[in-house]
């Protein structure tokens, strides 16, 4: 039986290895070309070993200024959207009010509307209020929350036993204090999930900063897409340096993903065991 089981798992492992190779192939090309010489075209094999490309990636443009802008937008998104979505999800899950379910369905229906559709009306609105080339649009977007994040929070809070909430009310806790002291600490897996999604969405966003900000306020993703690495003002783009800069931008995403994935899995398993 053991031999047959091992033979039956061979195709499965072969398929997993094949799919892993397909997904890792772009990363392999990026690493190879990031260390290649400037005057070579991208290829499957490395053309030399030039780690100085990473040095040029952060010195040939104002890399750290754009990185600071990315961190500012990231901090705004994390501090607003993560908290506001949780508060709204808690209200939908635990506060009984007329029309609650209908309002929740309206919030969910906004998920079917592509974000790009609202870009032009938002641009006109922020232009009329003089908020272009500022970080205020991200503040308002964060305060407005996110329908998908609200759904995640609401589903989690709805599964919490009522006895905990009733015990908090008996002890004199208000609605906000019950949320802050009881529900929010219990929802760390959801908070981690929302924070990681916010990080990935904010760190790699191109369209929003390109439309609402000028070049001095661009984050890294937008700056790298609009500013070329050239030598001595020539029109020849240094692809190896550009690829090295792209890897530097990708590195925080990979680190956060792997660290956060472990936290999310452990948190969800623990929550499931507690019931």
From TrEMBL:
The keyword Ribonucleoprotein does not apply. Residues 67-260 form the ABC transmembrane type-1 domain. This is Carbohydrate ABC transporter permease. Coiled coil: none annotated. InterPro entries: MetI-like (IPR000515), MetI-like_sf (IPR035906). Keywords: Cell membrane, Membrane, Transmembrane, Transmembrane helix, Transport. It is a multi-pass membrane protein.
């Amino acid at each position: 039986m053991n031999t047959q089981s091992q033979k039956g798992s061979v195709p499965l492992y072969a398929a997993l290895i094949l799919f892993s190779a397909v997904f890792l192939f772009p990363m392999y090309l990026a690493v190879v070309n990031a260390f290649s010489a400037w005057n070579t075209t991208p290829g499957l094999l490395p053309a030399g070993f030039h780690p100085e490309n990473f040095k040029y990636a952060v010195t040939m443009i104002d890399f750290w200024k754009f990185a600071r802008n990315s961190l500012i937008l990231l901090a705004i998104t994390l501090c607003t959207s993560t908290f506001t979505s949780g508060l709204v999800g808690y209200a939908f899950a635990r506060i009984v009010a007329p029309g609650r379910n209908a309002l929740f369905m309206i919030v969910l229906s906004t998920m079917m509307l592509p974000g790009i559709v609202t870009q032009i009306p938002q641009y006109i609105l922020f232009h009329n209020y003089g908020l272009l080339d500022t970080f205020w649009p991200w503040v308002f977007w964060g305060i407005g929350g996110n329908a998908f994040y609200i759904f995640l929070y609401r589903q989690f809070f709805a599964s919490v036993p009522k006895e905990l909430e009733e015990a908090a009310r008996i002890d004199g806790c208000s609605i906000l204090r019950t949320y802050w002291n009881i529900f929010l600490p219990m929802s760390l897996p959801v908070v981690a999930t929302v924070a990681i999604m916010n990080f990935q969405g904010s760190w790699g966003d191109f369209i929003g900063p390109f439309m609402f900000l000028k070049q001095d306020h661009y984050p890294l993703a937008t700056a790298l897409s609009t500013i070329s690495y050239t030598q001595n003002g020539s029109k020849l783009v240094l692809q190896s340096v550009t690829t090295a800069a792209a890897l530097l931008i990708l590195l925080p995403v990979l680190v956060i993903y792997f660290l956060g994935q472990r936290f999310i899995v452990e948190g969800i398993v623990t929550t499931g065991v507690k019931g």
